[in-house]
């Protein structure tokens, strides 16, 4: 599974070459703890129902709080033939500028 760091994605965003970003956290996490600018919310439990909106040919970064749920989503999609999925390693915990996350609140 391909993984990017928060810095990798941030750099791509600054260059204007960022892929589609899908946040797989729950709505309360997305809205109350902040999210990556431009990220779409599709909670992990809704990914199967949303497959028609996720192209197998599109490069997509998946994000969650720590990189665990988004990693599972990437593995699931790869088994279905999605080859261009990327997990955001460390998730929002290590996203530059994250709100209510970060290494100091890792246990949250």
From TrEMBL:
GO MF term set: thiosulfate-cyanide sulfurtransferase activity
Gene3D superfamilies the UniProt entry points to: Rhodanese-like domain
UniProt xrefs under InterPro entries: GlpE_sulfurtransferase, Rhodanese-like_dom, Rhodanese-like_dom_sf, Thiosulphate_STrfase_CS
Taxonomic superkingdom: Bacteria
Domain Rhodanese: 15-101
Protein name: Rhodanese domain protein
Source organism of the structure: Kyrpidia tusciae (strain DSM 2912 / NBRC 15312 / T2)
């Amino acid at each position: 599974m391909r993984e990017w760091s928060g810095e990798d994605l941030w750099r791509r965003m600054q260059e204007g070459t960022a892929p589609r970003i899908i946040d797989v956290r729950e709505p309360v996490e997305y809205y109350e703890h902040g999210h990556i600018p431009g990220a779409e919310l599709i909670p992990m439990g809704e990914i199967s129902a949303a497959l028609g909106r996720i192209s197998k040919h599109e490069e997509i970064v998946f994000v969650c709080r720590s990189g665990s749920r988004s990693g599972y989503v990437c593995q699931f999609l790869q088994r279905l033939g999605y080859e261009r999925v990327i997990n955001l390693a460390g998730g929002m915990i290590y996203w530059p500028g994250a709100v209510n996350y970060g290494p100091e609140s890792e246990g949250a």
